[in-house]
Every structure is written in C-alpha cells, then in structure tokens.
Design goal:
This protein is of the alpha+beta class. It has 4 helices and 7 strands, in the order H-E-E-H-E-E-E-H-E-H-E. The protein has a 5-stranded mixed beta sheet. Strands 3-4 form a two-stranded antiparallel sheet. The relative contact order is 0.21. About 11% of the residues have low confidence.
Length: 122
Amino acid sequence: MSACQYHQVCLRSDDLCARLGGEEFGVLLLVKEKEQAREVAEDLRSCLESTVTACGDVKIPVTASFGVAVGSHDLESLFKQADASLYQAKERGRNRVVCSFDSDGTEMSEARKHMTGTTLKG
C-alpha cells in the first residue's frame, strides 16, 4: 500500500492528499477552526502509527511528522509555514504534530507530544 493510500484510509472524504516529492506529502483540509486542523493532523498521525506494513515476515511500523499551517494566505505562504513546522517536528524527535499558529511553535501539551490543517505537510 502506498503512502497516499494509507492517507486515504485515514483522511476524511473532503480532504485532499498529494505527494510533493520523496517522502513528503501535502494534505489540504477544509476546517472552520485552526484547532480542528491540529486534531485532523493528530488523528492522521495516530492512524498511520497504528498501521503496520509487512515485508515478508518483517513488520515495519509507520510513523509520520506533520507541520500544520492555517490561514487565508496564499497557498505558497501556507506551504512555507507548514514546511517550517514540519522541520520543527522532525527536530523534536519525529512522529508528532507541530502547528505554525502555536505561539512558540510547540504542541499544545506534553502528553500529546508523546502520543504523537489549512495545509498539512507530513
């Protein structure tokens, strides 16, 4: 199963997933509140984490990091914000969600950080 196929299993019917290149994917969401974007990203991260890929007898866990940006900015600006948040997520240990709209660029709570759009980049 390809990464976009995993995303399609985990995403809502109105969400759009596209491969950006390499191991990076973009997800375009319709949300009313920015916290809803965080929740969708966390749900997607959790869904992917619960998925196991098999290669012969070897089971390979799936994890993902997400950078989230929300706003009425042009798509290029949203993409840059999501990209910066994605790099923060990777620097903080991967398999987590970081949102550009957080005051310091960190997750909402320490508990979610370890459990661990409108544009998501992951």
